[in-house]
Amino acid sequence: MIFAANLKCNHTRASFENYAKEINSYQNNEDEIFIFPPSTAFSNLKLNFFQGAQNFYPCKNGAYTGEIAQEHLEEFNIQSVLIGHSERRTLGESEEFLRAKFDFAKNLGYNIIYCIGESLETKQAKKSLDFLKNQLDNIDLNYNKLIIAYEPIYSIGTGVSADSKDIEEVLNFLSQFGSNKFLYGGSVNQENIKTICSLKNCHGVLVGSAALKADNFLKMIQIAKG
Ligand code: PGA
């Protein structure tokens, strides 16, 4: 299974060092664990999980004030990136820009967790499937290091995950377009992780708030597998 933690704008360099050590202590040969810390907290430790970047600018380096780029990721041996998270889309990342990020990361052979998700209005208008398919039309689904994270916007950070029935319907629908792996994200916690991970076509989860403490995240992994 795939367990990914998006720490968003939380954790400092000092606190993430402890976090990384705690996750490192988890011995595991079967699962893929991705952790996305803030870029100021990237770790130089030898890690037994994939450390990833929440954001990057699609260039090697250059005159892009405030951005981080390929050189900065590679200094920390980072080869996994999150693209398309709804919080970044809200900050103004267009489909065109997401495509540029995707193509850039793909050309470098990075692992890409590409997030898609619809709003409550779209869901209520029964337009979810078309909307999500459109979001995927932007990228190359044949890229073999692509993982798609379905994160309905109405479930992110709300404490209420989407309905299992709805998640399953969406993942079944999306799985007909390629042989991709799918994660679900949006208020995943200790109570619902096992059910979510056992849904058809669900290969794991992308967790925000419930993963802010390493012991919580490790407990969730145990529950999902137990
Ligand atoms: P959440 O965040 O688990 O706090 O809902 C998930 C995400 O934004 O990836």
UniProtKB/TrEMBL annotation:
CDD domains: TIM (cd00311). Residues 122-149 form a coiled coil. Pfam families: TIM. GO terms for biological process: gluconeogenesis; glyceraldehyde-3-phosphate biosynthetic process; glycerol catabolic process; glycolytic process. Signal peptide: none annotated. SUPFAM superfamilies: Triosephosphate isomerase (TIM). Its EC number is 5.3.1.1. GO terms for cellular component: cytosol. InterPro entries: Aldolase_TIM (IPR013785), TIM_sf (IPR035990), Triosephosphate_isomerase (IPR000652), Triosephosphate_isomerase_AS (IPR020861). The keyword Cell inner membrane does not apply. GO terms for molecular function: triose-phosphate isomerase activity. Belongs to the triosephosphate isomerase family. Homodimer. This is Triosephosphate isomerase. It comes from Campylobacter volucris.
